[in-house]
Every structure is written in C-alpha cells, then in structure tokens.
C-alpha cells in the first residue's frame, strides 16, 4: 500500500481518533495517580538531607531539610527573578527544600540551585519533629531538660529519653483536649441555654403571659443554675491550668542547620523521628500512624496541619441527613411519574424538566438555598420558635439542615432518574401476573414492583451521595465554614444540632489550598484531603455501577 | 347462624366442610380495606409526586420572585401636610430628615434651625444660630447630605458653620432622638472675606483634612479658603488653621459657587448659564481650567447639587433640563470637565435638586410643582409626578430613601412616602456600556462594592457573561476533539475487551469533584504551564503528527507482525507514544525556551505585547475541558454505538473502507446525538463554578485572550453572594445572574434531551 493510498483510505483519521481516547485515558489515569501519589506520599517519612550551599556573596550556609521537588528551567528565568547565576549556565536544576523551623528562619520552604550545593549527606542523627505550632522542626538533638535541669546529653541518650516524655506530653494534651472539647464545651452550651431561658422569662413577662412574681421566681432559679455552672467552669479552668503546668516540664535543646541551639518544648511535640536511621518497617509504622492521625485528628494551625476529622464528620453528617430527605421523596416522585401519572405530552415535558435539573449549575441551587431556605424559611422559624435568641439567628443562618436540604434538591433528579429506570426495567409480565392474581395496584406496587426495583433505588442513592459529597459551590452559600468550633453531633441535648455549621472535605480543599497564607506548607495536606475525597467518590461510584450492571444481568434473564 | 361461627370465620359456613376463605362479610370488609389502601396509596403517592415536582418548579418561581422587585417603579404618596417651623417672614433654605425618618430639620434663611416631627409637623425644637447683632444672613449652603453640615454667609464677609446632630437614647427601651446643633468651627462667625463685604454665595465641604469653603462676594470676587482643624488632646480645645485665596474671576457674572470634598476643584455658575471649573489643588496657583455653556442662550442655571462623593455635579436649567458633569482624567493626566448625560427634561424651570445620601440618585423639583426622581449610573428618570400646585422650593430626602419632605412655594411641606428601592437597575446599566464617574469613555465594567460610601457600583453583566462564554469556549475547544473523536473510536473501532475498561474509566471522571480539578488546575497545572510553556505548545502541535506517524510506521511493518495484533488496539499502541512524546516535550522545554524564546517564554510574550496571567484561559480550558470530556464522551459514544449494525455492514459490504463508513454512514446517523453531547458539555462548562473560581484570577475582563483570566457568572455569584445585603439591588442582580445561568443551561439541556429522544426514535425505525 502506498503512502498516498494509506492517507486516502482514512487510516490516519482512525489513528487520530485512537490518539484522542489514548490521551483522555492517560489524563484520567495520570490525574488519579498524581492525587494518590501525592496524597499518600505526604505521610511517608522523607529522608533528611544535609548539604552546604554557596551563597551569591561567596559565603556558605548549611541546609538541613527534606527535598520537596526539583525542576529544570532556563537560567534566564532565574536571572530575571533577581538571582545571580553563573554566566556559562543556560539550563539549571533547582531543588525545593523543606527546611521547616519557621520560628527560627522565617522561611520553611526554599529553592536552592543545584550548582551551588555540595554533596548531599543523610546523617542518622537528623531529627524530624512534628510540632503543634510553627510547623515541622529539623535539627540535631543536643540535650533534654527537665524543669531546666539537664537529664540527658548526647544524641543517642537524648533520643532514648525523649520518646517516653513525648508520650507523656501527648497524654496530658489528650486530657486537656477532652476537657476543652467535652466538659468546657458542655458548660458553655448549658450557660448559653440559661441565658436564653432568662431572656425567655423576661419576654413572657413582657407579653403578659406570666406575672412579675412568676418571672422573678424563674429568674432566681436560673441564677442558681448559672452560679453552679460558673463554679463548675472555674474548677475546669483550674484543672486545665494544672495540666498546662505539668506539660511544660520538659524541653528539648537541638542544634539547627546554622549551628544555633534552639529550645523545643516537649509540650509542642506531636511526634519525633530520625527518618535516616529508620528501616522500612519502622517507616511503615510511622506512616500508618500519621495516616491514621490524619483521618482522626482535628486540624491545627488554620487547617494547614493536623487531621481532617471534623471535615469527614461534617461531610458524612450532611450526606446522611440529605439521604434521609432525598430517598423517600425521590422514590415517591419516581413511582408517581412512572406508575400513576397520566402518560402524555405534559408528563413528558415534566419528566424532561426534572431530568434537566440534574444539569443545572449547582451554584444556582446554592443561591436558591440561601435565599429561600436560609433567609426565608429559616428567618420564619427563628421568629416563631427562637425569638429569645434574636437578633442572633438560630436557623436563619447557613447550617447543616439547609446544606442538606439544598443538596437534597440538587440530587433529587438523580434519584428520580435512577428509580424510574429501575421501574421501567421490570418486565410487565411480572406486573400482570400479580394483577391477574387479584392484587390491587398498590399491592402489586409495594410487594412486587418496588422490591424488585430496590437495587435501582440504591444505585440512585449512591450516585446522589457521590454527587453530594463532591459538591462545594452551593455549600459555600448554605452552611459550610472553614472551621466549625463544634461538631453537629455531640453529647448535649438534643444531641443532633441541625442548625450548626459544618466543615466539608471539598470546601476544606478550596479553603486550605487557596485561602491559607502558606500555600507551600498546606499543599501536601490538600493533596491528602483530595485523595480521601477521590477515594470515597470513586468507591461509591464503582459500587453504583456494579449494582447497576448486576441488576441489568438479572432482569435480562428474567424478561426472556 | 351460630355465634361461634362468626367468631371463628376461618371455619366457613356451619355444617359445611371448613373452607379456607373467610366469611362473606369479612371478605367484603377486607376488600373495602384493600380498596381503601389502594386509593390511599394512589393519593399519597400522587401528593408526594406532585409535591416534589412543585418543589423543583419552586426554584424557578423563587428566583423570579427575587429578581422581579428590580422592576418596581418608583412612586411617592403624600401622607401629611403642614406648615414648616420658620419664623415669620423668613423662608426655608434647606430641608432634611434623619435616619429614622422621625424628625425633619429646616434651616431658615435668617439663621434659625427648626426640628419637627415628620409625622405630625409638631415642632420639637427651634435653635437660633448665633448670628451677631446688626449682621444679616446673605447666603446659605449645605455640604454633602451625609455630613449634616451647613454654612451661612453673612453681610460682613464672615461665615457661620453649624452641624445638625441627632443623639439616640433609649429611655424605657424606646428610641428617643434628641436633635441639636453643633459648631465645628466655633460659635463665633469666621472671617472669610478680609475686606468684609457681604457674601452672595457660599459653599462648604468637609474632607479628610479639614474644611474647604468658597464664596462669591458682593463685589464679584471669588474666595477659596481651607481650614485645617486640630484638637488639643489635653485641653480639648479646637484650633483652626486657615488660609484664604482669591481666585481669578470668570468672564461672566458669578451667581453660585461649589467646592468638592477632596478640596481640589471649585465650580462657579455664571448668570448666563455657564459652568466654570477651577483646579485648586495648589490654591496659590489656582486658575480657571475650563468653561462650558450648560443651557442655551437666554436660559439660566437655576439649581445645582453634587451627587454623593461630590464627583458629579448636577445642573438644572430654567428650561427644565438636567445635566450631569464630572471631571475625568485624560491620557495626559489632566482633569477635564465631561458632560456625562442629560436626564429627561422637566416641563418647567428646575427649582431645587436634592441628592441621595449614599446612592448616585437625586430628586428634582420644578416651578410647576412636578417632582422628578432621577438616577445617574443607570441613566434613568424613574418618576415625573406633579405633587404640588405651587413651585417646589425644597426637597428633603431620607437617608434610607423611604420618605420625602417636599416644600412648595406656599410655605407648606408635604411628608411623603417614597418607594424607590432599585434605581440602579436598568437594561442599559446591566447590558450596555455606561459612562461612569471619572471616565472619559463609556465602558463595560463589573465592580459591585468597595470600602467607601461614595463608590459608584458598576453592575455590567457583560464582562461576566463574556468571561463565562470565554471559559466555556476554551473548555469546549479542548474537550470537543478529544471527547468526540475518542467516542467515535471507542464505539466503532475499539476492541470490545479494551472498551470494557476504557469506557468506565473515562465515565467515572464525570463524578470527579470539580473542586479537586480546580485545586489541581490552580496550584499544580497553572505553575506547571507557566514554567513549561514551550512544552504545552509543542505537545499540542506534535501530538497529532506523532499519532499519524505511528500509524504510518505500523502500516509499513511486515504483515506477519501486523496480523498478530487484532484490530482495534491502535489506542494501546499509542499510549506509550503519547507518554514518550509528552515526556520528551517537557524535558526539552527549557532547551526550546533557550533556543527560540530568549530563555523565558513568558517574558517573550510580554515583550511582544501579550499579557500573561498565571491563572489564565489556557489553564481553565484544560481543567474545565477535562471536566466536560466525560459528559461529551459518554453521550456521543452511546450515539455512535447505537447506530444500527446493518447500516455499517451494508456500507462495508459495498466496498467502503472503515473510515469511509464512519464519515458516510455512522457520523450522519449519529450526528444529532453528538450534537446533543456537545450541548450537554457546553451546559456543564457554562455553569461550572469551582474550577473557574480556583483556576482564574477572577478579574472581570473584556477580552478573549488565551493568556488572561476571566470572571464568570457562577464564580461571581459564589464570591459575592455571602457578602451582599439581603434585598439590595446587588443581591437581586446576583439572583438575576443565577437565573440567567439556570435558563441558559435549562434550554441547552432540554434541547439536547429532545434531540436524543428523537434520535432514539429514529434508530428504532431504521
């Protein structure tokens, strides 16, 4: 075949088309790989390198830290950004080193050109510390102080003495946390309730529902209650102060890259490791611990460190409430459209409209939710049921309930479409059989048709959940915040607080990635959060696809 | 019948063999119960179903109901009519109202301030200002409405400055407003004219660094004075530093003077209808910069007022004309007087103009008793209504625009209910180009809010719509070839075993949260593209060539090798080629940059005059394109796959090659479906929020450049909605943009859905 003939046959087009799908698949796989590698990779203890970097002034600084990434760029770009580059170099590689020690140097991430670096060494004693404040610390252990007294000196001894002390500090911290979140949170909550009750009593009096004596009696009761709570609060504060005193006992003295000695209070240490000296299994252990902490911990440092537990919890709570709302209504609407409504042009139009709502931009639902649910319905609820709290709104402000309702509206078409599809797939012979045996329409429906269609409904629900879990735009308007002080479910009556604001995985990504001042430090965490979200959604979708496929097979068999 | 039988119905009739059926009565009851359950289910499900449909319809209805108030016309309704509390023989000089619309204030032309209750006209307090004995008031002027600052010019060349204040107290939990008058420059009159002549016209404004005063004396001298006050922290004493300048006169008889709040411009109105502008930035060298004739010969300027911010001057003529003027800085950095617009003429001479406190609107009264409500930015005349028999002499506007005081020549004042919630809205303001304050040319701009009160909101939806279309266009440019071509290959050529893996892989991306794509686009792709610009372009150019070349090489290979690979695996062969080419392009990127672009392609773009933003349409196009590929792919693939096999087999049997069959048979049959796929993808790209929010700079721009960012309707709503005041014009315009999005996507989706349904019918007929 000549080349000309080959072109004429259209074969190049086939190859181009094949290329298009190849590119698409590579992009999809590449994207997932990127997220998974960066997301999971963040928790792997990176080796700590030590090197000498020649400064443009001719001096030399020691750099200790972990390599983040490298890139090769034309030196022209570097020159234009004000760096001095040797004239003979045209292309240069540079490395981004995470130096940590934000409190020591002020810059925890820094690019260094390769030509200025001496050979990289990986000293075993190099210490990596995850701290509660100021980000990570890199250095070499020198001494360990207890109440200002030296109790261990030398790298090996300090390292040995350090571990139990970190554990002790962490235990105390856990206690502090539990008092702060649990007990003090509870006292605050009750105090707010007392304040509202006082207001309520006063309002009832003003509206003439109770007389002055009754009001005074109620207020006196509340006063007693308030004093009890204040006393309890004082006790807790005292407990906390004691714990804080205890936790401040130990201090680690370490040498940082430039040779200075630096004091790191053990109370600040979340965990410490010497990654260069660790074996693979030790690293695996640390990896698992960090990963677990990421999923179960609370965020620190303006969300850029720590865990994402509240975001996971908020996402799950919101999706849960949404499912409770969307399932019955979606299923009933689908049954109505498919089984009861008179089939005709009008119904076709309605059906197309409902289906199309799935394609309407989610931000439109957010606008609707904010205007209608939050301001209109929420405002009305506040006036009717929570007048004592006004002017601070209870339901008249974005919150869990409104977020769930908005997403329920958003995902309603998904559930309706899936359920209708399931109902349509049920062979009419099954229906006719039931009717022929004398069952009424509703009996046929509830005992024969709906049970057969249940997997389809499940598919719809899972797809709805997957969509809801990934939506962010509408949630920004109707109830998601960057940092919620309390979870929507806790031990205080009525246990589930639908009016509270929540955190959300998707919004967490947006917020930490784009609103945080130190993007470089926050990025690994964003990748990890994105990874959790992707895994969640891919798993949900695969489940749905699986159920759908099995369903198809099942009825293909039955209708034959 | 025996009782026990009824009690044990399962036995059947007495004496007979016990049957399985219950008794007749029992069965009837059961039938009734079942019928009841059946109809209960029918109505219950019906109610729920209709309810859900209604709830979804409510979205439309509610968005409309929030947008509709934009169209409410302005109106006034007289509530009360009473006499103004001015001393006998005096005339009112100024009328105003405080924030709660409870109290009105009237300044008389003899130097007395009267406070009265707006609802009844009852006098609350009358405060005579300390005008010295033997001196008469010859001029009066009020600063910007919000400053509550008034100045009297006296016959001995001095001025008296006073401020009306309203102290709020809550005795017994009820609001009580206690009015009063303060003297920010001291109770004693201040000398303005060293020669001591009577002042014919005065003007005052308080700015960031003190007061500016201007006056025209009886002998036609123009005076300008700046007063900087400082308060001693320890003694509480106020000292005023004053510098007075005489400005050159105008070639016309001067009637009125106005000074701006930034103390940099003085306007003088001439008796023959001329307007003169002085630059007083350096008062020592101040000179007349420009003079303009405002009204035709023989007519006069009868009223003037600054809009809030004192950047725009409104002039009203004896011919009933109303014009807006402001200073605009040209390219040579010189400020020039610009005639912004003319408003709808009144039928009689304009007698008074009252500006709004924080919007760019004003109320004008004329000699025939007609009240006009006008708005500058939207270029609207909202109302022209005759409210009095006599000429309107003064108008007092409430700071919250819900009430008006209108005084007519006969000394009576009307307290009126005002409804004017959304004057900023007009089709021109939303979709047309508008001449904003301080500009020489009309433009399209979106800038909804700013920190200062005197800011002119710019509500042009054009840049946002353009940004939306721009983002969608580049996304489609990226997604359409990949999605459609990929669909054709997957559905028609691909080996079924590969297809079983490829199709779900691409389709699962449809569920990918866009926030993740946006985050990657903004934080990973944008810097990557910026650093590897040559790689991006070389990949775009070389990739198709490499694919065809691979095909060519393959076709040259000996048959023995080619036969071993079944048809439909071209894609798998191309995967390593694509990866390798991508890697080579990226690795060589710095070299290419060095050889052809002077080492920095971004700088090279800037040098040839293209602005490069890091987060630009190229990045958005790729990220959002990636987001819509699954939509396009999935629908188009279905359309191609469902083309009946006998058609393609017929074509092949007649000797057409595979590709000829695709072009001649498959594509024509499936084209409506592919069109629907593109529409769906477009609908998704138009409404996408998170990607554009994170991967663009969110700057509203008016260009279509590949290397600049944009702000889209959806991102704009997401950014601004939580911050706007409920019920404000801005709030409603955001609802309008949401409605626009809803309608666009709804139409696009419905169209593509109908096309698909038609297509399905056609397939079943073939």
Structural account:
The complex is a heterodimer of chains A (560) and B (766). Chain A has three domains: 49-122, Roll (SH3 type barrels); 142-273; 309-559, MetI-like (MetI-like fold). In chain A, strands 5, 6, 7, 8, 9 and 10 form a six-stranded antiparallel sheet that branches. Chain A has a four-stranded antiparallel sheet with strand order 1-2-3-4. Chain A has a two-stranded antiparallel sheet with strand order 11-12. Chain A starts with a helix and ends with a helix. Chain A has 560 residues and is α+β, with helices and mostly antiparallel strands. In chain A, helix 2 crosses helix 16 and helix 8 runs antiparallel to helix 13 (441-470). Chain A contains 16 helices and twelve strands. Chain A is flat, with a radius of gyration of 31 Å. Chain A has helices at residues 3-8, 11-41, 75-80, 102-105, 155-206, 212-247, 280-296, 309-340, 345-357, 362-385, 400-425, 428-436, 441-470, 473-478, 505-515, 519-559, and strands spanning 49-54, 60-74, 91-98, 109-113, 127-131, 137-146, 149-153, 250-255, 261-265, 269-273, 299-300, 305-306. The mean pLDDT of chain A is 87. Helices cover 61% and strands 13% of the residues of chain A. With 766 residues, chain B is an alpha+beta fold. Among the domains of chain B are: 3-68, no CATH class; 462-765, MetI-like fold, CATH 1.10.3720.10. In chain B, the strands form eight sheets. In chain B, strands 6, 7, 8, 9 and 10 form a five-stranded antiparallel sheet that branches. In chain B, a hairpin with a 4-residue loop joins strand 12 and strand 13 (222-231). In chain B, helix 7 packs across helix 9 (570-596) and helix 13 packs antiparallel against helix 16. The longest helix of chain B has 44 residues, at 24-67. The model of chain B is unreliable at 1-13 (pLDDT under 50). Classes of the chains: A alpha+beta (560), B alpha+beta (766). Chains A and B meet through helix 2, strand 2, helix 3, helix 8 and helix 9 of A and helix 2, helix 4, helix 5, helix 6 and helix 7 of B.
